[in-house]
Amino acid sequence: MNIHVLLAGIGVICMVTLPAEATVITTAGSTTVLPAVKACAKSYQAKHAGIHVISAGGGSSKGVSTVGRGKVDVGAASRAVKGKEKSTYPELKQYQLGTDGVVMVVHADNDLSNLTADQVSKLYNGEFASWAALGGAESNVNLVTLGKEHGTYELFSKYFKLRGEESEGNIVFGKGHAWIAFSQDVALDRVAHDKSGIAFASIGVASAFAEKSGRVKLLSIDGIAATEANVSNGSYKLVRPLLMLTNGDAKGEVRNFMDYLLGQECQATVKALGYIPVR
Length: 279
Description:
It comes from Mariprofundus micogutta. Keywords: Signal. This protein has about 280 residues and is α/β, with parallel strands linked by helices. It has 2 domains: about 1-100 and about 240-275, D-Maltodextrin-Binding Protein, domain 2; about 100-230, D-Maltodextrin-Binding Protein, domain 2 (3-Layer(aba) Sandwich). It is built from 10 helices and 16 strands. It has helices at about 35-45, 60-70, 85-90, 115-125, 150-160, 185-190, 205-215, 230, 250-260, 265-270, and strands at about 1-5, 15-20, 25-30, 50-60, 75, 90-105, 115, 140-145, 165, 170-175, 175-180, 195-200, 215-220, 220, 240-245, 275. Strands 3, 4, 5, 6, 8, 9, 10, 11, 12, 13, 15 and 16 form a 12-stranded mixed sheet that branches. Helix 1 crosses helix 10 and helix 6 (about 185-190) crosses helix 7 (about 205-215). The longest helix has 14 residues, at about 35-45.
């Protein structure tokens, strides 16, 4: 006898066939946290027969709301939980998995290696229509963004003091129209195939993509590179916590899985993926 597990309503649908005796743990939320959760879940399952962890993305806001409404066992967020969310879901418990930053990313052939915060703001507000205005090539700037449900977007827009409105598949910042990518991987792939593109993403996710593809590069901001050392020492300012969330105290197998996520083995995985572990 098999169990078919359907995880829907969070931007993705997963159908998995499991043995009848399997214990299923579901997670959803931040696409920044997702690679770490998937990697740790894989090693956890290898050590615990009969446990199956289903992990989905959807963004930080959905990570908070789906766990708060009891739709999943564990939520993930790459930002702090908002006051309104705490009021709506008063039983939420937070566990910090690590720390990460947000980085600006361009095509590997782009001549630039650094942007100031003011330049990023003006790029997304449409004040610089061509890369030539910044000393780059004579080509139009093609803006890429994540949707507002992503914690990565929230930190990006807050740090660079941008206010955007969604319109027909874009977020409009002043005169700038940024194409909305469904996920960070989609945003990075878009830039990898567009020499005029610029996007933002998690340092961990972007670093892994750059190393694997060789087609994008990470930019310094105000002369500070997006490195683990600079995030750790506080000189790189675009940083945020990576949180795991449960609705009330985790119990049973969910508690065991949470303990593993915060333990030494998973923390080593977090570090290997380019994030800053908490221990």
